[in-house]
Amino acid sequence: MKRRSIVFIIILVTIIFSYQAGVSFGKDKDDLYRELEIFSEGLVIIEEKYVEEKTAEDLVYGAMKGIALSLDPYSQFLTPDDYKNLLVETEGKFGGLGIEITMRNGLLTIISPIEDTPAWEAGIEAGDIIIKIDGELTKDITLNGAVKQLRGDPDTKVILTIVRDESRKVEDITIVRGIIKIKDIKRPMILEDGVGYVKIGEFRESTSKDLSKALGVLDKEGLKALILDVRNNPGGLLNSSIDISSKFLSSGKVIVSTDSRNEEKRIYRADSFGKKYLDIPIVVLINKGSASASEILAAALRENNRAILLGETTFGKGSVQTILPLSDGSAMRLTTSKYYTPNDISIHEKGVEPDIKISKETIEKTEEDVFEDMDKKKEFDYKKDNQIVRALDLIKGILILQFGN
User: Fold this and answer.
1) Is 353 annotated in the active site?
2) Residues 202, 303, 330, 337: which is the catalytic one?
3) Residue 287: band (very low, low, confident or very high) from pLDDT cuts 50, 70, 90
C-alpha cells in the first residue's frame, strides 16, 4: 500500500508542477487526467501482479525510457549514470571502440567509425548494422544499453556481429577496446600547387578555432584552394558547424535554419568576424558517414555556390537534440527542432547528394604496406585515396580556369 501511494504522489506532483509551470500537453485538462489515470492504473497493476518487486524509481525511469523511445531514434532518457557518461564523452577522451551509433528502423546502426580508433582499424564501416554484441542479440537494445555493452576497460575485447549495409554479408569482427582521443582537425597540409587539405573529425567547441589556426599555417604556405574532408564525420555541435561555414561565406548568407514546435523558425547567417576565405575554390568530401553538422556545412557551402561536393550521399540526420537536465541528476536528450538547408530543404532520412558521385575504391595493400601498418610508421598517402585524387584534379582544373597556367 505504501508503494502504491508513492506512485500516485509522483503522478500528482507531476500534474501539479506541469500546470504551475505552464506546460502544455496539447490536450485539454480532462483528456490529460484521463490518460494519466490509465498510466497510474498500469503502474498499480505492475506493482501488484509483476513477478518481481520493483521500486518507484525503476517504474518511473522505465516509463521515461519508453516515452523517449516512442518519439524518434535520437531522443533518450538518461539516468544519472548515463548523463555522467555523456558528459565524459564531450571532454573528447574516453574508453571504448571509436564508433558513433544510432537506431535506424529499429536496428542498431553505425553512423561512422572515428578515424584512427580501434573500430576504424578493425574495418568497421558507416552503415554497418550491429546484430549481436558478444553473441547477444541487439533486437530490443536501447542506445544507452548498447553504449554500456560496447564500453569497457582498455585492452579488453568485444565481438560485434555486423551486417554490412551493401553486401548484406554477416560477419564477426573482434575489436580491442582502447582510450579514444578525439582530434577535430587532422592532417592540414598543402597537397600540390597550392591546394590545401584539411580533415575535420568532429564539430566540437574548439573545432572552429583549431581550423582557423590550421588555415593560417596553410596561408603562409601559399594556399590557393582547399579540400575540406568531412567523410565519416558524425557531426557534433550546431554552433560549431555554423562558425566554420561562416569562414567561407559572405556576411549575412544563410547557413541553416531550424524549425521547432513552439518557436518561430530561426535562421542562422554567416557572421562578419574573423578572417574570411571567400575567393578560394573549395571541394568538400562527403560519404555515408557524414552526418548532422557535417551535412549542414556541406549543404551551406554548396547552396551558396562556394563549394562542390564530391563523394557519396550522406547519412541524413536533419534534427537537433537538446540535453535537458532533470532535478535528480537524470536528463532528457530530446529532439527539439529540425534543420533546413539554405534552400529550405530538409535532408532528414534522405541525406545530401554529392555534385560528383565517386565511391571510395579499396586500395590493395602490398606486403610492405601491411608491415608498415603493423609498425604504426606508415604516413598519410593521399595518392592512395581515389576521392582525394579526384578532388585534387577537379580543383586544379578550377584554378587553371580562374588564373590560367
Assistant:
1) no
2) 303
3) very high
